[in-house]
């Protein structure tokens, strides 16, 4: 296939380049005041994040009885030891309801324990020995996936990408209440 901008797009086979080209044309026509580069950046980040998460789950986390949120939870607990559920939700970027579901699953599977916090309305989560073991295995596998995805970048490019993504996140996070 070529990247000919005039080629007709099949309704059953639409490549990423077709979508990008078609969305730019649509934006220019329907929303001429829009900044198509910003929208394309957002869409690319979303596609990248979804694909990275799906591949990570398929290659690493599902074989260990985890999903992405479960991995994020055991990774965060590996770093911080014990966390309150609401703090965990904030640092892994999910709702309190989502973290409640993952905690229930991880506790059922023997990866974490929860105890009542200082305030009886809260609880504190920490890894079990089994949870620490699965956290190490999943992080090791996740490092491998990251190498596959980002290994083609030079150290300078990787640093620049990381800096730009952190900048977007911090700018956006400052506008959203925790």
Short description:
With 178 residues, this protein is mainly alpha-helical. The chain has helices at 16-30, 36-61, 68-80, 85-92, 96-108, 129-150, 155-173, and strands spanning 82-84, 112-116, 123-127.
Order of helices and strands: HHHEHHEEHH
What percent of residues adopt helix (DSSP H or I)? 55-70%
Distance between the termini: 46 Å
Q: Report Rg.
A: 20 Å
Gross morphology: elongated
Task: Explain what the structure shows.
Helices cover 65% and strands 7% of the residues. The protein is built from seven helices and three strands. The protein has a three-stranded antiparallel beta sheet with strand order 1-3-2.
Topology (SSEs and partners):
Blueprint: H1 16-30, H2 36-61, H3 68-80, E1 82-84, H4 85-92, H5 96-108, E2 112-116, E3 123-127, H6 129-150, H7 155-173
Antiparallel strand pairs: 1-3, 2-3
Helix pairs in contact: 2-6, 3-6, 4-5
Descriptive tags:
elongated, 65% helix, 178 residues, mainly alpha
């Amino acid at each position: 296939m070529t990247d000919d901008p005039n080629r007709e797009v099949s309704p059953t086979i639409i490549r990423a380049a077709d979508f990008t080209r078609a969305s730019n044309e649509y934006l220019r026509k329907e929303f001429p005041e829009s900044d198509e580069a910003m929208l394309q950046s957002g869409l690319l980040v979303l596609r990248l994040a979804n694909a990275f998460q799906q591949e990570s789950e398929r290659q690493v986390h599902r074989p260990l009885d985890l999903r992405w949120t479960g991995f994020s939870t055991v990774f965060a607990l590996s770093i911080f030891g014990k966390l309150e559920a609401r703090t965990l939700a904030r640092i892994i970027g999910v709702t309190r309801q989502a973290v409640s579901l993952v905690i229930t699953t991880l506790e059922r599977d023997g990866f974490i324990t929860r105890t009542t916090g200082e305030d009886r309305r809260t609880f504190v989560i920490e890894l079990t020995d089994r949870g620490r073991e699965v956290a190490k295995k999943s992080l090791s596998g996740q490092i491998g996936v990251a190498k596959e995805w980002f290994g083609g970048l030079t150290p300078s490019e990787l640093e620049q990408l990381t800096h730009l993504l952190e900048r977007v996140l911090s700018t956006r996070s400052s506008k959203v209440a925790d």
